[in-house]
Amino acid sequence: MATRKASDIKRAAQAFVQEWQGRSKEWQDDKTFWEDLLEDVLGTPRSRKEIEVQRP
To answer: Whose C-alpha in 2, 19, 20, 21 is 20 to 30 A from the C-alpha of 30?
Structure first.
């Protein structure tokens, strides 16, 4: 995984907060929340395919 600059992570985190602020459907949005955080903010590649957010 490529190293991201702190300024890029901060900018991505601010955009993430703006997008997610005020959402109230926690049960419906939990998987998407974690996927967006891991991929868009932290730069984790392919998290949507490789990480299980919840197990039944």
So the answer is: 2
Tell me how many degrees the CA angle 50-13-42 measures, rounded to the nearest 5: 30
Tokens standing for residue 43: 């730069």
DSSP string, 1-55: -PPPPHHHHHHHHHHHHHHHTT---HHHHHHHHHHHIIIIIS--TTHHHH--S--
User: Which residue, chain included where needed, has tokens 């601010």?
Assistant: 14
**Are 14 and 37 spatial neighbours (Cβ–Cβ below 8 Å)?**
no
| pTM beyond 0.85, yes or no | no
Task: Name the residue with higher pLDDT: 27 or 17.
Answer: 17
